[in-house]
């Protein structure tokens, strides 16, 4: 499109143009007929703002634009040129700085040309751009009667700033009937024709002069001389102007409507300004303003000049239930009610709900924003407005649903104005409005029985589960129950004890089966919420309704528990409930809990990208977990674009968007998907952008299949808490602009004296403890590398004739690999780098160099330097793991409400995981930590995943870093998800950085498959599947005396196999409670005095990951209201001899936890299916199916049955989570050829349906 504007500038001289005013243009169309364009509707009080993004910082900023005159309301710093209609400025911190003072000038020769039938405004400025040329704004206007959007930036070519604008003003005007009507937004029309007088208005001017004037019609002939006079001075011989109905009514920059008329010689001599005044009389009297430069000005204040005020048609009850009356709203019709009183049967009432009445009614009934009107069936001209649409319906304290329209016409008693009061009542059948009474002060009351006033019946489900019937998604809140402790919510003078989806552990005032207990300051407890597990879902909100004991005499307390969505905290934080009373002395309470279980499935992608020069862009500070960003449109209505950054929009009743959408448009109660979260940010010619694609279907004739959203970010260090701006939509692509500090690049930071500061965390790395000593490493050929850190080598290791910090010793020579330097650099991914230059000569004009990259490796891995490779024969690469490069290792576990995923046992310290493909590619991975350095593999120090191609001689080539471990694993439906981001530039799309996705799948048999390559996306995200028991959720097992039924083994495990009584320090353990010291208890403790304290008997067993956890309780009294308890974690140790021995893991008051590993407790069986390590997908050829063993044929049939059952997804997921063995037995001994669906859902959200 930019090339098109280059041609436009050359074609201006040849285009036929006619400029009749600043806003009105007439031009000859392609068919030879004149076409008139009126841009007055684009004139506003405040300037339009258009973000300009350019490769040059001197041309990047905010463009202020005015279409019909000079800019107003700006400071001198923003725009010093008073004649400018276009001005480019930039805000640095709190200060504005002008870049182009006059990109367009109001007094310049602005012209209109047609290009392929599209109007284009050429707006030259006064500011020079280059010798002989000034800046010019090229404004292309695209006709669309249904759109009123803001202008948007298309590009900057040379001196031309190209803008686009989708608007109804770009459509040619008609020739007749426009003098007093004008299209507004939302399909509404201003209609001023009812203001026309049968003859004329007589208006008093200054100096005793009098004028005859008519509105929207000519003055009657006997008052003014000539034909069709628009106005004249009394007793004058000529009229001021002739009335011409083809002259268009238009918007003025100051917000009023304006109509102009001309004299016989064609000059403008009359201007009438129409101001919105909802309280003015319907037939208002014009007022004389002034006469200036041959133009006479008049003002009219009228409700007919008022635009519609859009309102939501919803109300919320005191319990927060949404009631929507929009089904009663009519677009082209209305509700009619006849007055039932005997003397008033001739009166008709016209009513609309939350919208103005249509133009088809008598003119007083559509005077502005009139929502109800009373009319005489015999005399329509006697109609009176009953009020304007200004406010949504509301629910009163008494629970009545009321809609009121105020500021109607004057009553017979002029102290009051007419208004209408409608009381909506729930009813099974639509009855329509019914007249009740009209009071002396002109309040007209109606009753309306309608199903729309009924509280919507929520979806309900038992056992804290409910199915959303709209999205067919099952919410399961059972796991929010804290099995260990109750939640305590502390207030000033009282507190609450809370636990949902299960009873409080401690009774409330001796009352059991309670969810919420109020604890007063004096210790008195009141059960304000008895247990109720019936979960309700309505309009994006989950709730539990609880009733309790009497709070006041005769008044029972109640608690409305509201569960709201909050995405999982990557740092593993646990959300807390909040409780508050609805009012002073009230017995109604609200419990609000933001929780991941209340979220539908959502998607998250890496939020960083790296430029070619190494600068890192990180938008993750803009990514929100509990609330969304909002970008309002310029229309001034409550609609707007809801969006999140690099993750799905957070689901709630005000953001009922599709679960994968990164942006959605809210239009009243409708939510339209503007694009799904698919990839992270990209750099497009150094401009940072985020794209959401595959939204709702696009209905534009020339548009793509689906709606998309493009967010353009501009770096502004001072914009800390900024919000995005909505620019508009073109061909179904919604454009937003965001000025934010998060868009500023993070470049490598250097420090001296062997230390450097992390600019984000302010942590200072110091490698000086490594200085002052020599360090050695060798390559595969036993060549020795001697290295110093930030200093010279010691005298015993001098090499060559150069004072060096790095030296290579071979069998035949010694070479200096560079002189010392103490300049330490902090690189992307947390890697530290030292560069030594100026070593021995290496070829013509070059010297040898050494690059040492320090990184924080896995705990327990070998520290020190490791030779990697020599680049171009001259640059030696050394990787060095040291604790001095560690700031805070990424946690390799994540916990949520007692459920924990811990992948730290998979961390490698001596060698990397490998996944090899037949084409020679090898994937190297570690878990939560950087790769273990190895010779010939140079993927960048600190990378957690890498791909390379292995040549025949073992040399690694085409190394590509697949990302760094910067976030902890998150819990998913099937186990856990680990993302590595910020890798090398994607070879296919250099603007995107490579990343890694590892889906850890629960394998209850304990099989650890290692990483299995799954697929590679076009955006270079490399996906792996990893089967392990470490991510299996807890399964409570049946306890039968001294035996525990292990569901995964389908057999009982006898605890007798571990032997009898065992001593662990001061503790004695006998799992079956038969020991001599514990008196029938399983665990007991001996005090210093020799007495024994019982820790209870076995109460439950839970299979969690690699452990069978035994919980013991009901022991002796430990302290007030507490008893002793213990846990014994039984684990597998195949190397142990016999029963093994328990050890004390943790001890706290009244509680102890032991670990007991034994080969007798290894849960993996020989019959368990074996998964391959890493191989490509192997399809099954049809010809081979007959040759397959019967067991394989059965497996295929079983898999087909599983596929059929997935149609009923709710049932399948429930079965799979509750009975995993059902599908485990159907596994093939090779990976499936189907692509694995990428999900990033909360395990607790999807654990069971």
UniProtKB/TrEMBL annotation:
Family matches, as PROSITE patterns:
MRH (PS51914)
Source organism of this protein record = Cloeon dipterum
Q: What is the lineage of its organism?
A: Eukaryota, Metazoa, Ecdysozoa, Arthropoda, Hexapoda
According to the UniProt entry, its GO molecular function terms are: D-mannose binding; signaling receptor activity
Domain of life from the UniProt record:
Eukaryota
Q: What is this protein called?
A: MRH domain-containing protein
What are the TM regions of this chain, as residue ranges? 1194-1215
- Pfam families assigned: CIMR (PF00878)
Q: Where is the signal peptide?
A: 1-21
User: What sequence ranges are listed for the domain MRH?
Assistant: 21-173, 178-308, 311-456, 462-601, 605-746, 752-888, 890-1034, 1040-1164
Gene Ontology BP term (one): lysosomal transport
Localized where? Endomembrane system
Q: Which InterPro entries match?
A: CIMR_rpt (IPR000479), Man6P_isomerase_rcpt-bd_dom_sf (IPR009011), MRH_dom (IPR044865)
**SUPFAM superfamilies registered for this protein in UniProt:** Mannose 6-phosphate receptor domain
GO CC annotations? endosome membrane; Golgi membrane
Q: What are the protein's UniProt keywords?
A: Disulfide bond, Membrane, Signal, Transmembrane, Transmembrane helix, Transport
């Amino acid at each position: 499109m930019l090339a098109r504007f280059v041609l436009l500038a050359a074609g201006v001289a040849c285009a036929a143009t006619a400029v009749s005013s600043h806003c009105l243009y007439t031009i000859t169309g392609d068919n030879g007929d004149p076409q008139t364009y009126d841009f007055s509707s684009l004139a506003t009080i405040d300037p339009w703002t258009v973000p300009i993004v350019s490769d040059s910082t001197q041309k990047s900023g905010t463009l202020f634009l005015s279409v019909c005159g000079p800019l107003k309301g700006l400071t001198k710093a923003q725009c010093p040129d008073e004649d400018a209609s276009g001005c480019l400025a930039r805000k640095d911190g709190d200060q504005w700085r002008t870049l182009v003072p006059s990109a367009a000038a109001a007094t310049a020769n602005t012209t209109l040309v047609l290009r392929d039938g599209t109007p284009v405004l050429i707006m030259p400025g006064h500011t020079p751009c280059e010798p002989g040329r000034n800046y010019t704004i090229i404004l292309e206007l695209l006709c669309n009667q249904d759109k009123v959007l803001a202008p948007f930036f298309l590009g900057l070519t040379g001196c031309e700033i190209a803008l686009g604008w989708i608007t109804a003003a770009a459509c040619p005007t008609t020739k007749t009937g426009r003098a007093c009507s004008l299209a507004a937004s939302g399909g509404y029309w201003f209609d001023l024709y009812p203001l026309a007088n049968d003859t004329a208005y007589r208006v008093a001017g200054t100096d005793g002069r009098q004028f005859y004037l008519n509105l929207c019609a000519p003055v009657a002939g006997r008052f003014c001389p000539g034909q069709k006079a628009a106005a004249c001075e009394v007793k004058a011989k000529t009229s001021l102007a002739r009335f011409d109905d083809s002259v268009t009514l238009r918007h003025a920059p100051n917000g009023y409507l304006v109509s102009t008329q001309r004299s016989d010689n064609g000059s403008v001599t009359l201007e009438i300004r129409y101001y919105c005044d909802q309280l003015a009389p319907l037939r208002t009297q014009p007022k004389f303003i002034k006469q200036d430069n041959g133009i006479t000005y008049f003002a009219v204040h009228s409700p007919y000049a008022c635009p519609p005020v859009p309102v939501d048609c919803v109300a919320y009850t005191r319990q927060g239930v949404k009631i929507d009356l929009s089904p009663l709203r009519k677009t082209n019709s209305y509700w009619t009610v006849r007055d039932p009183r005997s003397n008033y049967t001739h009166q008709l009432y016209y009513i609309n709900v939350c919208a103005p009445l249509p133009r088809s009614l008598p003119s007083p009934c559509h005077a502005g924003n009139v929502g109800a009107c009373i009319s005489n069936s015999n005399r329509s001209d006697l109609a009176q407005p009953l009020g304007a649409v200004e406010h949504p319906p509301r629910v009163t304290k008494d629970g009545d649903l009321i809609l009121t329209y105020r500021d109607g016409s004057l009553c017979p008693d002029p102290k009051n104005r007419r208004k209408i009061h409608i009381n909506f009542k729930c009813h099974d059948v639509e009855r329509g409005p019914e007249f009740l009474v009209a009071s002396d002060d002109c309040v007209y009351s109606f009753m309306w029985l309608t199903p729309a006033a009924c509280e919507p019946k929520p979806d309900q489900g038992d056992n804290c589960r409910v199915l959303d019937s709209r999205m067919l998604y099952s919410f399961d809140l059972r796991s929010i129950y804290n099995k260990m402790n109750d939640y305590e919510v502390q207030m000033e003078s009282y507190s609450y004890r809370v636990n949902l989806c299960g009873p409080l552990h401690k009774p409330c005032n001796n009352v059991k089966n309670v969810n919420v207990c109020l604890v007063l300051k004096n210790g008195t407890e009141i059960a304000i919420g008895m247990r109720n597990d019936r979960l309700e879902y309505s309009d994006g909100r989950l709730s539990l309704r609880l009733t309790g004991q009497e709070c006041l005499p005769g008044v029972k307390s109640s608690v409305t528990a509201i569960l709201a969505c909050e995405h999982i905290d990557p740092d593993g934080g646990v959300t807390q409930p909040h409780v508050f009373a609805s009012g002073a002395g009230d017995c109604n309470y609200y419990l609000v809990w933001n929780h991941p279980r209340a979220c539908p499935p959502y998607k998250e992608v890496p939020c960083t990208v790296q430029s070619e020069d190494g600068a890192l862009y990180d938008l993750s500070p803009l990514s929100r977990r509990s609330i969304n960003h909002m970008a309002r449109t310029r229309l001034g209505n409550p609609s707007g674009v809801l969006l999140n950054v690099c993750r799905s929009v957070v689901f709630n009743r005000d953001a009922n968007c599709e679960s994968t959408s990164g942006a959605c448009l809210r239009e009243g109660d409708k939510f339209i998907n503007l694009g799904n979260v698919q990839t992270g940010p990209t750099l497009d010619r150094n401009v940072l952008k985020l794209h959401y694609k595959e939204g709702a279907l696009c209905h534009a004739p020339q548009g793509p299949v689906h709606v998309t959203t493009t967010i353009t970010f501009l770096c502004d260090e001072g914009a800390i808490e900024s919000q995005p701006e909505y620019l508009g939509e073109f061909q179904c692509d919604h454009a937003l602009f965001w000025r934010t500090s998060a868009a500023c690049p993070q470049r490598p930071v250097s420090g001296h004296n062997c230390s450097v500061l992390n600019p984000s965390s302010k942590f200072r790395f110091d490698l000086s403890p490594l200085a002052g000593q020599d360090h050695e490493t060798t390559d595969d050929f036993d060549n020795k590398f001697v290295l110093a850190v930030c200093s010279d080598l010691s005298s015993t290791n001098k090499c060559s004739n150069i004072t060096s910090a790095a030296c290579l010793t071979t069998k035949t020579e010694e070479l200096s690999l560079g002189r010392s330097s103490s300049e330490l650099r902090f690189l992307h991914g947390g890697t530290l780098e030292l560069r030594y230059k100026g070593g021995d000569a290496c070829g013509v004009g070059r010297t040898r160099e050494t690059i040492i990259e320090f990184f924080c490796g896995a705990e327990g891995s070998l520290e020190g330097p490791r030779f990697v490779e020599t680049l171009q024969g001259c640059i030696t690469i050394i990787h060095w793991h040291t604790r001095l490069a560690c700031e805070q290792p990424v946690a390799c576990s994540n916990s949520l409400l007692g459920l924990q995923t811990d992948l730290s046992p998979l961390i490698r310290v001596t060698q990397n995981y490998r996944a090899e493909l037949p084409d020679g590619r090898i994937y190297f991975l570690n878990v939560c930590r950087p790769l273990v350095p190895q010779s010939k593999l140079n993927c960048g120090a600190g990378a957690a995943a890498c791909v390379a191609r292995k040549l025949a001689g073992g040399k690694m080539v085409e190394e590509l870093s697949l990302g760094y471990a910067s976030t902890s694993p998150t819990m998913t439906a099937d186990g856990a998800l680990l993302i590595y981001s910020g890798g090398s530039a994607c070879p296919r799309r250099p603007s995107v950085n490579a990343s890694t996705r590892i889906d850890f799948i629960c394998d209850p048999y304990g099989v650890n498959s290692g990483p299995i390559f799954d697929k590679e996306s076009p955006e270079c995200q490399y996906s792996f599947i990893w089967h392990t028991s470490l991510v299996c959720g807890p399964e409570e097992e049946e306890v039968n005396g001294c035996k525990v039924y292990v569901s995964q083994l389908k057999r009982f495990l006898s605890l007798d196999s571990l032997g009898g009584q065992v001593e662990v320090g001061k503790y004695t353990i006998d799992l079956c409670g038969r020991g001599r010291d514990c008196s029938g208890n399983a665990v007991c403790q001996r005090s210093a005095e020799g007495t024994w304290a019982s820790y209870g008997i076995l109460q439950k067993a839970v299979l969690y990951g690699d452990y069978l956890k035994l919980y013991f309780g009901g022991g002796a009294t430990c302290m007030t209201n507490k008893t002793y308890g213990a846990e014994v974690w039984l684990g597998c140790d195949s190397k142990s001899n016999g029963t093994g021995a328990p050890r004390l893991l943790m001890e706290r008051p009244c509680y102890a936890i032991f670990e007991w590993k034994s080969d007798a407790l290894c849960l993996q069986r020989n019959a368990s299916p074996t998964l391959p390590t890493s191989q490509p997908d192997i399809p099954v050829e049809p010809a081979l199916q007959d040759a397959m063993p019967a067991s394989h044929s059965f497996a295929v049939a079983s898999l087909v049955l599983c596929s059929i059952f997935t149609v009923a997804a709710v049932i399948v997921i429930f079965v799979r989570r509750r009975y995993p063995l059902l599908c485990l037995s159907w596994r093939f001994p090779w990976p499936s050829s189907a692509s694995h669906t990428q999900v990033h859902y909360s395990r607790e959200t999807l654990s069971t349906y």
